[in-house]
Amino acid sequence: MLDQLRSIVQRVSATADLRESLRLIVEQVQDALAVQACSIYLRDPQGHRLWLCASHGLRERAIGQVSLAQDEGLVGLVATREEPLNVDRALDHPNYRYLAETGEEKYRSFLGVPIIHHRRVLGVLVVQRAQAQRFDESEEAFLITLSAQLSGTIAHSESTGDLAQLIHPEDPDSHETDLRGLPGAPGIAIGEAVIISPVADLFALDAPAARSVATELAEYRRAVEKTRHDIAALAQGLSGQISEQEQWLFTAYAQMLDDQSLGKEVKARIRAGAAAQAAWSAVIIAHVRQFETMQDSYLQERAADLRDLGRRVLAHMQESEQQQVAYPANAILVGEELSVATLGTVSAGRIAGLLSVQGSVNSHLAILARAMGIPTVLGIQGLRLERLRGQRLIVDGYSGHVYVAPTAEHLAHYRRVLAEDRQLLAELEGLRDAPAVTLDAHPIKLLVNTGLLADVRISLERGAEGVGLYRSEVPFFARQRFPTEEEQRQFYREQLLAFAPRPVVMRTLDVGGDKNLPYFPIDEANPFLGWRGIRITLDHPELFLAQLRAMLKASAGLRNLRILLPMISSLSELEMALELIERAHHELTAEEGLDIHPPRIGVMIEVPSAIFLARDLARRVDFLSVGSNDLTQYILAVDRNNSQVADLYQSMHPAVLAACYRVVRAAHAEGKIAGVCGELAGNPLGALLLLAMGYDSLSMNASNLLRVKALIRGSRLSELKQLLRHVLKLPDAESVRRVLNESITDPQLRRFAEMAPGLG
Ligand code: PEP
Ligand code: MG
Which residue has the higher pLDDT, 600 or 747? Predict the structure, then answer.
């Protein structure tokens, strides 16, 4: 039976067309269970009716025509009770509903199982036999197992719009497709899809026969030179919009063409008799495959860079001039694998949004899109690009939703959101220089989280009082080796200078978990519980010391550096880290004679053990900073990147709030200050709670800063404290959110609270 199940599931998942998948299921199940009829009823996406979408045994012409109300007939009963129904005499059942078009009166026994995905009933799978005999337990178990395995495929067809089209092919409104991907860069874009196709196909190459070695080498060199030139022009086109640091991505790109890198292998193949085109694509494909098989998501992303580079060089060899596409004013670039380089080919003002089938939040594309403020959604599996050509799209970079051919209703809604977004921003800009104080004169420091240089400009424009979290690992990603101490010193200096005299909290290297460096791969079964953050840097004092020295040197004459230690889970880790900081400072001052002010040191509270050790930790340092993102993940045992459990990831869960409250009291009991630098701090409602708890500072994405400030300036600490007492007694995140929402009665403030992206 297991073999039959496996074979059905495998065949279905290999079929791209929904109608064909359903046909396969009913045919195979009929065969496997030796039943006379097998049918699938699916709910239309509006959830109004259950439609007969496939059948083997019922009349062909009933398929797509017959439907039942949600609670109608035996099928409706299965759907509403959300459990199997196994009856020997279906026609005698009180819920039996005769559907003349199907010709089902000849079948007496009925077994129906619900198709459920993430607690939602998507439809019902039914088998029927002529004789009046209950199905046995193993048959029931077979159908339940199959249904559970197929539910993901059916849910996916709902999200790609295939299901709506199957059920209502003639209804234009049903053609709106709601695709779900990963939010790559926040914001809303409404515009026209422009499909970016690869310029040359490495994988379907019809290479010409090789000419002389010299001719092939010359062709290869010419193509490489032209590609270098293209890359330089792209980088040039983006200068001013991205920082020098981000420009480095292009240098890395160009370096791959060097003789020490890919060039050597290609030339060797040409010398062995291959044509330039064939040699180039063989080398690229081999490297792409190698990257693709790696577990690490960051390295897999590098396969995308290689493919893009491969196509560019090949295109030059094929002399196929890159097509000049006329971009509409609100172009939403859509591609299987959009690359950083694509951004440079369109004048930035014309790009309203980006949509890439491949890619993750870690990708260079996402990093740059965030820096440039272009709403982006990534990682939409199963998307058929051709269907999108020239279509109107809404890209919701806050939630990861993309609406294709949106309904008039959705369009109106998002136009409103876009207009409100702009208007709110304009209104909020007036608060740039206003202090973050409550109506009853209680101040709190509002800081920003940074990593890219592009963040600096936005942060200063929004009136940040300093940096509460500089993610020092970000510049490490855009490289092919660890940056040297001097390279690090330079980019730290840029940050410190940009904000001086305002404080800049620099977190030491926090890699591992979902953040892997391309040149330092870590392969673990449970990376979030593995070698992460301080655990790595303590095991590699040479890396840690180089970073500490670079930070300290960068702070010479400025006095605004603070150092923050990530993932501390025990006192001994903290003590070892403090010793190394002390050592780096001593080397630079006592031994090298530099004049460097000792920085204030803080500990991130993001692991449950640190909550219970908070007082002991606070005693040894200057401040505590709560990383609510990881703290939520570890307290609730919910992977922050797993979409299966995304609804369980709640930073307003009572347990997370209780932990935050405990930490601030522990810090204050030791006479130390406490802040929050996870997403909770940038959530206007969360920020109010943290203020009421007594936190001294909140650090957030620059995009949320003015909203948070507006809410703080409209609130009274005395009232917030009362609210906090009430909230801390609530049973779940849902009620916390509701009570907080209800507490904001001013309509203007309510808008600021509602509009905030990323309400965790
Ligand atoms: C956190 O965990 O809340 C945090 C700020 O760090 P990161 O998101 O970089 O892990
Ligand atoms: Mg963290």
Answer: 600
Residue 375 near residue 397, CB atoms below 8 Å: yes
Does residue 667 share a domain with residue 741?
A: yes
Is the same domain home to 312 and 359? no
Higher pLDDT, 257 or 627: 627
421 burial type by CB count under 10 A (0-12 exposed, 13-18 middle, 19+ buried): middle
CB 703 within 8 A of CB 715: no
Q: Closest ligand 1 atom, CA of 469?
A: 5
C-alpha to C-alpha distance for 73 and 95, rounded to whole angstroms: 5
**Confidence category of residue 499, pLDDT binned at 50, 70, 90:** very high
pLDDT value for 173: 59
CA of 634 to the centre of ligand 2 (A): 10
CB of 469 sitting under 6 A from ligand 1: yes
Residues paired with 198 in a beta bridge: none
- Is the distance from the beta carbon of residue 139 to the nearest atom of ligand 1 less than 6 Å? no
Residues 355 and 310 in one domain: no
Q: What pLDDT score does 322 carry?
A: 44
pLDDT of residue 125: 97
Say whether pLDDT at 245 is over 70.
Answer: no
Distance 580 CA to ligand 2 centre (A): 21
Residues 160 and 181 in one domain: no
Sequence-distant contacts of 537-542: CB under 8 A, at least 24 apart: 537/508, 537/509, 537/577, 538/573, 538/576, 538/577, 538/580, 541/580
Q: Are residues 230 and 306 both part of a single domain?
A: yes
**Is there a catalytic annotation at residue 364?**
yes
* Domain that includes residue 222, residue range: 213-317
60 belongs to a structural domain? yes
What's the average model confidence in pLDDT over 615-629? 97
pLDDT at 735: 97
Distance CA(436)–CA(665), nearest Å, equals 22
Query: In which band, very low, low, confident or very high, does the pLDDT at 381 lie, cut at 50, 70 and 90?
Result: low
CA-nearest residue for atom 10, ligand 1, is 630
Active site residue 677: yes
| 476-509: b (≥16 Cβ within 10 Å) or e | bbbbeebbebeebbbbbbbbbebbbebbbbbbbb
What is the spatial distance between Cα 38 and Cα 29, in angstroms, rounded to a whole number? 7
437: pLDDT strictly greater than 60: yes
Of 133, 143, 72, residue with least CA distance to 112: 143
Instruction: Look up residue 236 and give its DSSP letter.
Output: H
**H-state helical runs in 15-110:** 18-33, 73-81
Q: Say which CATH number the domain at 518 has.
A: 3.20.20.60
Cβ contact 156:382 at 8 Å: yes
590: DSSP letter: I
Segment 114-125 mean pLDDT = 93
Exposure class string for 116-144: b at 16+ Cβ within 10 A, else e: bbeeebbbbbbbbbeeeeebeeebbebbb
DSSP H helical ranges for 607-732: 608-612, 614-620, 628-636, 654-669, 679-682, 684-693, 702-713, 717-727
pLDDT of residue 758: 40
Domain count, the chain: 4
* Residue 556 Cα to ligand 2 middle (Å): 28
